[in-house]
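Researcher: I'd like a structural prediction for the single chain below. Treat it as a standalone chain; there are no partners to consider.
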Amino acid sequence: MVVSIDSELSALDRRMTALRVDYERFFSGDLKQPPLVARRELEQFLRRLGNSEIDRAVDRFRLHSMEGRYNALRELWEKRLTAREQGRTLTGRPLAPEAPAALDEAPVDAAAARSSSATARPADPSGRTCRSCATRNSRSSC
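Model: Treating it as a single chain, here is the predicted structure.
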């Protein structure tokens, strides 16, 4: 049974689309591991089609454009995988924002911030104490 090159190219297009979807699922977190088996099968399929003789120019053009599209996708996947392994996005930014140093402290509400604003003032070197807030500063009123 002879399979036409047109049906082979259609099957290649379907496989490439499925592999692209699988890689998008991997990079979004749906899949735990990259789809390496499907990628290897697609590369073997591409190699087999590339080694066959194709008589019609239309089919040759279609095969070469699919090979080019696959190579572009493969480079993109490699870049994204490398970036993911290095802990950064494709743009060079970190994946997660860095945690601030004072994360262990409880959040301060506005009323507590106002009452503690007097303690944030520098202490008076003469040792005087403010009468209104009982802190050591040189101001007469807080």
